[in-house]
Each structure stands twice: as structure tokens, then as C-alpha cells.
Amino acid sequence: MGQLLSRAIAAAVALGFAAGSAAAQTDYPQRAITLIVPFAAGGPTDVVARIAADHMTRTLKQPVIIENVVGAGGTTASTRAARAAPDGYTIEMGHMGTHAASVALYPSLAYKPDADFAPIGLVAGTPVLIVAKKEFPAKDLKEFVSYVKANVATLNMAHAGVGSVSFTTCLLLNSILGVKPASIPFNGTGPALTALISGQVDYMCDQIVNLVQQVQGGQIKAYAIGTPGSAGRGQQALAALVKSEIARWTPIIKAAGPTD
User: Fold this and answer.
1) pLDDT above 90 (res 153)
2) What secondary structure letter does DSSP report for 232?
3) Residues 6+ apart with CB under 8 A from 226
4) What pLDDT is recorded for position 251?
5) Residue 9's pLDDT band (boundaries 50, 70, 90)?
6) Collapsed DSSP state (helix, strand, coil) of residue 168
7) SS3 assignment for 82-151
8) 258: closest CA among 178, 139, 162, 170?
9) Chain-wide mean pLDDT for the chain?
10) What is the pLDDT of residues 23-58, one digit of tens each?
11) Residue 206: enclosing H or E segment and its boundaries?
């Protein structure tokens, strides 16, 4: 079961992307930079983006302004980023959901992740937890698996939108377990986590950066953790990572069947 988690979690990384390929600018930047976050404020992608934006502001001596654009599993924001002028002043904090799984999930996707963006850098790779509401009866991962298999018809899974990390990682988990619980979408991890804490949903999978306080406070139960893989830091290595993630997640998502 530990291998299950490592397989499910390996792509929970945040990547900085710029639209197109901007020409070299020796005096860049001369004004504020907009950093688009594809999910609601308070979620793990937002947290990582704000940490990065703070450092960039101090390093570049220009403000980096966070813009949260929610909807369609992050693809609404990615479409906006792809259509921005390729001048380096609009960038996005994307990840494997917005730039890999989205290709299989959205047949009419308005952008090509491996062609319409220039990867800037690997920002973070965070472990993902399998968590459940505090009333969930299973005491450990083995019991969690058994309980989910036996009661899937009455269970539901929360996620931050089709294509998000929370969606795709739990999709893989469910496919390995051979179950299809009801899938409940939210506009970001924050709202999904709130629903989990209140007991409105049964379980979810998400990045640890957003869950530590709630687990330690006994508001939710944690059953397993997986750590992500690593990738080279150069632009060619990051572009190759995007392509490999598209190839990796496409067959998994297609095999799972309809996602709405």
C-alpha cells in the first residue's frame, strides 16, 4: 500500500509557467508581475504561490500580485495565462493537474500545456495525504481500504475541481482500490477541506501543506502519506516533465471513465 501512495503522489508539484516564450529583457522587470493561481485562496497551490511571490517581490524589486482564478479544475486560469501577452508579466503557478491531467479530462482544452507555455522553474514538490472526516470508522490504512471497498455506495470523495491534484491523486487511489465513490467538486481545496471538517464529505487526498494543522488538531484523520518524485531544474527538464506527466496521467484518467 505504500507503493500505492508513492505512485499516486509523485506529481504533486507546483511549476511556474509563463505564456509563450518572451524575448530576453535585460532590464526586466520594470513593473508589477501578475501571478495567476488556478485555485481559491487558502489552498496548497495558493500557499506555495504566496511564498514564492513574497520572495520574488524582494528579489526582483517589483510587486508580484496574486490573482486567484477558479473554475474547471484550474483550466480557466490556465487559459487566461496562455492568452496573456508573452512578456513575462503574467505567469501562472500551475501543476500536474492544470498541465498534464487536463489534457485527458478536457477534450476541448483551450491551450496546449507543452506548447503554449514556457516553464520557468520547479517551485515545490509536496507530499500528499489520504485524509477522512474525524468520524470515519477506520483506524488505519488497512481498515480504510477495507471500509471504502465495503461501503463505497454510501461514500463520497471531496476534491478541488476536476483536474486538480486532489482530484487526480484520489482518482488514482480509487482506481487501484477498484471503487467509484460519489465525487464532490469544490472551488478549491479550502472549501473542500471545510466540508471534510464539518463531516459533509467522507474523504479526500491533498497536499500536506494544507492539512497539517487540521490533522494535528484532531479535526480530520490522516491515513497515509506519499512523497513526490524529483525533476531537473533546467527549462528543458521541466518541459520534459510536463510531457511525461501528460503521458502518465492520460491512460489513468481515460481508464477511470466519465468524471462528471
Assistant:
1) yes
2) -
3) 2, 5, 6, 7, 8, 9, 10, 127, 128
4) 74
5) very low
6) helix
7) HCCCCCCCEEEEEEHHHHHHHHHHCCCCCCCCCCCEEEEEEEEECCEEEEEECCCCCCCHHHHHHHHHHH
8) 162
9) 83
10) 456 789 999 999 999 988 887 788 889 999 999 999
11) strand 203-207
Q: Model confidence over 99-139: pLDDT tens digits?
A: 888 888 888 999 999 889 988 888 877 788 899 999 999 99
Q: Grid coordinates 495565462 are at which residue?
A: 81
CB 74 within 8 A of CB 38: yes
Which domains does the chain carry? 10-125+230-256 (3.40.190.150), 128-226 (3.40.190.10)
**DSSP class of 72:** G
CA distances from 66 to 41, 47, 56 (A): 9, 11, 12
pLDDT digits 0-9 by tens, 167-206: 888 988 898 899 999 999 998 888 999 999 999 999 999 8
* The CA-based dihedral angle spanning residues 135, 160, 224, 250, taken in that order and rounded to the nearest 10 degrees: 140
Closest CA to 92 of 102, 249, 230, 195: 102
Reading the block at residue 63, the C-alpha cell is 510587486
H or E stretch at 78: helix 75-82
